[in-house]
Amino acid sequence: MSARSDSLPPIALSLGDPAGVGPELIACAWADRSTQRLDPFFLEANPAIIREAAAMRGVDCPVVRISDPAEAGAAFGEGLPVIETDNGDYRPGNPDREGAVAALHSLDSAIAHTLAGRASAVVTAPVAKAELASVGFPTPGQTEYLALKCDVMVQDTAMMLAGPTLRTVPLTIHVAIADVPKRLSVELIVRRARVVARALQRDFGLERPRLAVAGLNPHAGENGAFGDEEARIIEPAIRTLREDGFDVTGPHAADALFTPHSRDGFDVALCMYHDQALIPIKALDFDQGVNVTLGLPIIRTSPDHGTAFDIAGERKADPGAMIAAIRMAGDCARRRAGHRVDG
Fold first, then answer.
1. What is the pLDDT of residue 341?
2. 118-166 pLDDT, tens per residue?
């Protein structure tokens, strides 16, 4: 049984691409549920995928068929609760169209259960964007897809990467590096910073979160010597946020922002582009990094790594990030429900 007993709905997991590491990591998470103090979770998928992935990993993860998420809590101690479908096969390292269909179906069902209140949060396993695009996936990634399904404007969400030592938010996400300066604006920074601050208060229990804003250019522009985006866009955004009462500093030179001494001075770093945010979190917390979508009416987390097709089925994938994503989803759900979160 889970070590937690709050009367919350279970967490809905999505399978991810069945050719990736998602199925084996889900099986590992269930097998380690008690030691890791994980809340009950379930997924909608082909049970054979989980069984075969567990057998490949050599972990004990029986599957318990359920017909409704309400059954997951009682079943969780006996096995991984699964709402059965016949979508997809377990073919590690060999993605195909059928696997993409299975991944999308599982994702849609997890979102639907959570929006309906039958699940307390969504945890998404990694997907292959190119494979999903081939079956009609309409967005660049799962973050944007969650916003679409929740009827929230993408500009009113934020992707936060969170680990034991660092939290970062890329203010622009899936855009070419050459397009980043054109996408940045005072409105974008202010809008996303507000989303981040409010989510850290509601879901992470930080009464007055400290936001550090990175510069775009080397040395944060060096007073205009290396670009004017800091003076023209980033500094006015910081002034607006401070006037609104938020605890914001910057723009900081990104090459020094993530040193141990600097990290002690903020709760989250707002970064100007994808790799500026993801490189430090993956360097510091790769095996425990969690991707959290802020600004949604539901809670969504995901391990901060990809499908890893190259090592799927080889017993090499570390389940730490999946376990961290499930634990974080439970913690956030508990805070939203007004329950105490230890630690």
1. 85
2. 999 999 999 998 899 999 999 988 989 999 999 999 989 999 999 999 9
Q: Comparing C-alpha atoms, which of 243, 180, 182, 245 is closest to residue 214?
A: 180
Q: How many separate domains does the chain show?
A: 2
pLDDT tier at 6 (50, 70, 90 boundaries)? low
> Which amino acid type is present at position 271?
C
Residues 50 and 136 in one domain: yes
126 and 220 together in one domain: no
Q: Helix H segments across the chain?
A: 22-31, 47-57, 72-75, 97-115, 129-133, 142-149, 180-183, 186-204, 229, 235-243, 254-257, 260-263, 274-285, 320-336
> What's the CATH code of the domain at 227?
3.40.718.10
Q: How far is it between the farthest Cα atoms of the chain?
A: 63
Are residues 236 and 162 both part of a single domain?
yes
Among 288, 284, 143, 265, CA closest to 213? 265
Identify which of 29, 78, 83, 77 has the alpha carbon closest to the alpha carbon of residue 53.
29
- Residues 107-116: what's their mean pLDDT? 98
Q: Residue 98: which of 85, 110, 111, 109 has the closest Cα? A: 85
Amino acid identity at 268: V
Give dist(CA 184, CA 171) in Å, integer.
8
Pairing of strands 167-170, 158-162: antiparallel
Query: Tens digit of pLDDT for each residue in 287-337?
Result: 899 999 999 999 999 999 999 999 999 999 999 999 999 999 999 999 999
pLDDT digits (tens, 9 = 90+) for 189-221: 999 999 999 999 999 999 999 999 999 999 987
Segments forming the whole domain that contains residue 228: 153-295
Are 115 and 29 part of one and the same domain?
yes
pLDDT mean over 26-30: 98
Number of residues that this document lists for the chain: 343
For residue 236, say if its preceding peptide bond is cis, omega within 30 degrees of 0.
Answer: no
